[in-house]
Amino acid sequence: MSREIRRDGMLAEGQSPEMPKDRMVVEGQIPEKARAGYLNTGTNGLLPQVAAEAVADGVRRELEQGRRYPWHSEWGEQVLGELRQELAGFFGVGFHQVALTYSTSDAMNVALAAMRWQPGDEVVTTNLEHPGLLLPLYLLRRRYGVVLRVVDLGWGHGTPGELAERLGRAVGPRTRLVALSHVAFGTGAVLPLAEITRLAHDRGIPVLVDGAQSAGAIPVDVGALGVDFYAVPGQKWLCGPVGTGALLVRDEILGALELPAIGYAGTERWETTGYFVPVPGARRFEVAGRFIPAYAGWLASLRWLGSLGWAEIHTRTAYLATRAQALLGGLPGVKLVTPSPEPGLEPAGLVSFQAEGYTPQRVQEECARAGLQLRTIPEPPCCRISTAFYVAERELEALADLLSRLPSH
User: What is the pTM of this model?
Assistant: First the structure.
């Protein structure tokens, strides 16, 4: 059941602000001690009980039964296969388009290393990117002489057309890739990915997307967007263990990619003569063995979230983000960094702000003393909260109350 969220951040008349769910299921899965005051899902989501049990069960099985062939191999293939299938359905792509990775950064490194680069090739990116994308781009510049065109989008304010046009002006005849976030990690701005992808593809340029702050926070249909690479983490909005992630690869670009590394996990068969055949699809980018219990935990988290209802989770997350903007934006001395969403774009789950006269670190310390956990962002210098569906409105109100009582400088 979807819900209407008014532009002022309140639900339509007659609708409850609580996401319709079995509260016992949520409370039984995420302990109150872990959930209370936790406003930092953008760094790490809270691990549900089912995921912890799946990880523990996997470790116990390895301890008691050993890692004997064939049971361990068969169990691992089953877990990873079911996880790929779950991710494919969730993101609207084919099973063969999913490569499992260790993180978003790992996925983006794989994508960039798989492309063929020449000195003078250009990559268009933005000033809003996380080091997980920027550092691999810097490595391309150092290793191959790739030129980076960094488009200043401010904090991400502007209509979808305006933001796409700014990026478009940086695209030139040597542009080989557009690389950017779906949701900016620092400001929480939702970038108009559909418009940017159309612009890039009209010029024959592939698109790499950092989905760290979008996957699980907002609806994402990678198949419909048509992006060439979409990198996602397991541990943030998808509530999986740390050390899990995935790279989703568009069919049309697969044939143009190199193998940045190779191992038995990515080969269909091989011979001692040096001959080998890569696995069809994106799985060829998986090199070797993985810690299966962690991926079993991620699979359990995805299934649990799906049982709650993704439409309701996304609606609740967006509602809380809009509510947080309304609460904090009305406080004297508090400046919102996160843009209000333009028509047609729902807010993501990140809300960033600055408190006049206070460093972000000082605000973070004051919040920690009050039992509220948030994080600081270096550029622009600000504090960031995450409005995951398990956040209570009273916690947002407590944050607003704390900020209202900070002595003015």
Answer: 0.93
